[in-house]
Structure formats: C-alpha cells, structure tokens
TrEMBL record:
Keywords: Oxidoreductase. This is Oxidoreductase. NCBIfam families: PRK06197.1 (NF004846). It comes from the Bacteria. It holds the Pfam family adh_short. Belongs to the short-chain dehydrogenases/reductases (SDR) family. PANTHER family: PHOSPHATIDYLINOSITOL-GLYCAN BIOSYNTHESIS CLASS F PROTEIN (PTHR43157:SF31), PHOSPHATIDYLINOSITOL-GLYCAN BIOSYNTHESIS CLASS F PROTEIN-RELATED (PTHR43157). InterPro entries: NAD(P)-bd_dom_sf (IPR036291), SDR_fam (IPR002347). GO terms for molecular function: oxidoreductase activity.
Length: 311
C-alpha cells in the first residue's frame, strides 16, 4: 500500500463508473463526490436534505462544468427512506458505494424505527443500504464499498447486549461504538464477499481530525453556544481542512491495490497527512463479534444480503 504523497490528483480516471456517496452535501462527503465527478464518475449525492443536496449538486456543477451529479433523497434514520432509495436507484451498475454520512455525540434520541440515533444512522442505516444495493454491486466487476469510520472507534467496543444504549447513554461512548460497528461491518462484509467468490472490495477509512459540521451538531442541538464556539475554534486552528480529510476515503475508493478489510487514515498520529494504513483496535477484527453484529443487524433492519453466504 504505497501512499507517499498521494493526493486527489492521483485519482484514476472514473469515466463510465457510477458512485453513491451518502452525506454528500457537506464536509468530506461533498469533497469526495466532487473529486469523483472531476474524474468522470456519475455521482449520486445521497442526502437527507433536498435543499442542501440540490445546492451541493449545483456547486459541483459550477466548479466542474459537465459534471454528472444528481441528488437523491436518503434519510439513514428512516429505513423506509433507505428502501425507497434502493428501489428507485436508476442505474444497472454500481461501482462504488461510499458510506460516509454520520452523526457525532448527539443528545440521546431515536431514529424513525426506534434505534438509538448514532448506532441507527452510523451503522444500521448503512448496513441496510449496502444490503439493498448488493445485487447492483455484485453485478459490477471491480466494485467497492468504502465505509467511513473514525479513530475514535477506540473509545469503546460494542456492547452486544445493549446495542441501542438503553441501559445507559454516554454520547461519546455511543459514538465510539457506532464507529467500531463500522469497522466490524467492513470486516464481516469482506469475509462474506470472499466466501461468495466476489471481487468486491470492502474497505474502511477515516478522516483524522477534519474541520466539518460533524463536530458542532451535537452542542448546537443542545443550545450550548460556548461549547459550539470552542469546537469551531478547534476546527479553525487545529483540524485539517475537509479536502485533506477526504483523501483517505478517496484513496480507499479509487487507488490501485486497496485490500479488503483495510483501514486507511491520515499518516501522522491518526490526525493529518497523506493516506496510509491506520491503526485499529483489535476488537474490530474479531470474527465472532463481526458475525454477531451482522446477525443482529439483519434482525433489527429486516435486510439480508442476497448472494452472500453466512458461516
């Protein structure tokens, strides 16, 4: 995995390829969608907000005349919305699914289907989306699924007896668990794809500390204006820009030689720098935990993966 100096200029030609990027209206999702479109991909911006998604598509077209981008509504906090997205997906092929959207350290809440919000959006919504789009992925030679996790997965392993944090809710622990779930999902998906003889690459990435709206959403929801100002200051002074934060995702999505179940992040201190292999907690490579999470996710979402074998 040679990544020295890798940047957006190294993205191979994406002409003829179709990509879906969730949460593509801002931050690293918008940069990811823009750079894929710049290289010729047809990019679906899968976003909850129609106004912000449409605005993002227009922004990309203004920067890149002739860019093939379209907004399609997707609310990962509502499995009905996830199913509608998959049922109306207009393309026969799907070369790249980037599970990017996420929420961080929110006050306790529940999705439309009753799941704790961070686990429901960050993991279960993407689990369902990937499963419903699997037939398109399997029909596309060389397809990839890239799921965006976080270095903060190290905050917590999963509690399989309390996936929805019903016994006790601590926002940062719940966030860490949801990001652990992203990595365990990638681990088990890669195993099942291999067992099915598929050449789809399931990989994960994280942006390090990148300046996006993710950090301020939780404190803003609670009206904690002082904390919001402190977080915003940290974004300005310490964080790397979204353009840099998107590079690990773009590398995992497009670079040659990306291995299944790899985890790509910034080179230096899990924080900043060119894409490189990233440290991950040992519990994210646990085969038994990966299978247990997969079975629980199928039961919670009602989504099974057509064409993939279990153990």
């Amino acid at each position: 995995m040679a990544t020295t100096g890798w940047n957006a200029h190294h993205i191979p030609d994406q002409s003829g390829r179709t990509a879906v990027v969730t949460g593509a209206n801002s931050g690293i999702g918008l940069v990811t969608a823009r750079e894929l479109a710049r290289r010729g991909a047809t990019v679906v911006l899968a976003c909850r907000s129609e106004s912000r998604g449409t605005e993002a598509a227009g922004l990309i077209r203004r920067h890149i005349p002739g860019a093939k981008v379209r907004f399609t509504a997707l609310d990962l906090a509502d499995l009905g919305s996830v199913r509608r997205f998959a049922e109306t997906f207009p393309y026969e092929r799907l070369d790249l699914l980037v599970n990017n959207a996420g929420v961080m350290a929110l006050p306790y809440g529940r999705t439309a289907d009753g799941f704790e919000t961070q686990f429901g959006v960050n993991h279960l919504g993407h689990f369902a989306l990937t499963g419903l789009l699997t037939p398109r992925l399997l029909a596309t030679p060389g397809a990839r699924v890239v799921t965006v996790s976080s270095g903060l997965h190290a905050l917590a392993d999963l509690d399989m007896g309390d996936l929805n944090s019903e016994r006790r809710y601590r926002r940062w622990i719940a966030y860490g668990r949801s990001k652990t779930a992203n990595l365990l999902f990638t681990h088990e998906l890669a195993r099942r794809l291999k067992a099915a003889g598929s050449d789809i690459v399931a990989a994960a990435a994280h942006p390090g500390y990148a300046a996006t709206n993710l950090q301020t959403a939780g404190v803003r929801m609670e009206g904690r204006h002082g904390a919001e100002r402190i977080v915003a200051l940290g974004n300005r002074l310490i964080a790397q820009p979204a353009e840099a934060g998107a590079l690990p995702t773009l590398y995992a999505a497009t670079a040659r030689g990306v291995r299944p179940d790899s985890f790509t992040g910034p080179k230096y201190l899990l924080w900043r720098g060119a894409p490189a292999p990233s440290w991950r907690a040992k519990w994210t490579l646990d085969d038994v935990a990966g299978e247990r999470l997969w079975i629980a996710s199928e039961q919670l979402t009602g989504v099974t993966y057509e064409g993939l074998k279990d153990r």
